[in-house]
């Protein structure tokens, strides 16, 4: 593997979690973390953006695995593989509604885990390749608005309503005051499409609407108290644009 697939393990039995982690590491995957609660999974997914989440359905705490998956999917498109010893129909129906890539039933063998992870990793690779080749079909930029494909339909977003854009691998998250919109278009493509508007690349993972800036610091920016990193590579370019508005 040239670039290791990054996997978050969410399992409240640390013996099982450690065994899974060891096996995945031996297979060449990168384990981004071992967490035991749904709340921790949400924070870890946001901070580290793993490629796959291996998620136990029955977690201790206020959030079970299914609820945690739903909250993660509100902002990040990360494939889920459920681990479960519970096969009752209501639980399966709830889990199915989050569109997981696979289920692994407990107890499972090392071979079950190995094959399932390999199949999901291949699906992700195929999906990413298709996305890159088809990404121009998902956006249409006009003078003051952008049309994005969202939940199966084209939706209008006024450019002035977009505060910043955050990269999420081959996806981009458009942040507005009314919510966020995850689209299957890379930040590089959006940068080219929006170069004649008020959007400036400030970091390898961020573009900002310069009319929305509240604070410009030495190494960071702020928009409505959201702290956005400012890379040295892009800083001079940003300052030139600020001086012209």
UniProtKB/TrEMBL annotation:
Gene3D superfamilies in UniProt: 3.40.50.2300, LytTr DNA-binding domain
CDD domains: REC_DC-like
SUPFAM superfamilies: CheY-like
Pfam families, alphabetized: LytTR, Response_reg
InterPro entries: CheY-like_superfamily, LytR-like, LytTR_DNA-bd_dom, Sig_transdc_resp-reg_receiver
Domain Response regulatory: start-end pairs: 6-121
Modified residues (4-aspartylphosphate): 56
Keywords carried by this UniProt record: Phosphoprotein
Membrane spanning stretches: none
Domain of life according to the entry: Bacteria
Domain HTH LytTR-type residue range list: 146-213
Coiled coil: none
PANTHER family membership: STAGE 0 SPORULATION PROTEIN A HOMOLOG (PTHR37299:SF1), TRANSCRIPTIONAL REGULATOR-RELATED (PTHR37299)
Protein name according to UniProt: Response regulator
Organism: Arenibacter antarcticus
Lineage: Bacteria, Pseudomonadati, Bacteroidota, Flavobacteriia, Flavobacteriales
């Amino acid at each position: 593997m040239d670039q290791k697939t990054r996997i978050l393990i969410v399992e409240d039995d640390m013996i099982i979690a450690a065994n899974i982690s060891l096996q995945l590491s031996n297979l060449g995957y990168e384990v981004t973390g071992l967490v035991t609660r749904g709340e921790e999974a949400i924070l870890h997914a946001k901070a580290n953006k793993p490629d796959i989440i291996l998620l136990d359905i029955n977690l201790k705490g206020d959030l079970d695995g299914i609820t945690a998956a739903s909250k993660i999917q509100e902002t990040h498109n990360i494939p889920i593989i459920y681990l479960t010893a519970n096969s009752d129909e209501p639980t399966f129906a709830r889990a199915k509604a989050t569109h997981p890539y696979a289920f692994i039933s407990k107890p499972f063998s090392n071979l079950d885990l190995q094959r399932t992870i390999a199949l999901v990793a291949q699906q992700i690779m195929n999906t990413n390749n298709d996305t890159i080749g088809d990404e121009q079909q998902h956006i249409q930029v006009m003078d003051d608005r952008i049309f994005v494909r969202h939940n199966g339909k084209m939706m209008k977003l006024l450019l002035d309503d977009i505060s910043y854009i955050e990269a999420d691998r081959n996806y981009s998250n458009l942040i507005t005051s009314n919510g966020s919109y995850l689209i299957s278009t890379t930040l590089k493509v959006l940068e080219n499409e929006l170069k004649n508007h008020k959007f400036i690349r400030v970091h390898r993972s961020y573009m900002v609407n310069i009319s929305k800036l509240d604070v410009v610091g030495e190494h960071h920016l702020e928009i409505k108290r959201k702290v956005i990193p400012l890379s040295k590579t892009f800083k001079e370019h940003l300052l030139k644009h600020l001086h012209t508005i």
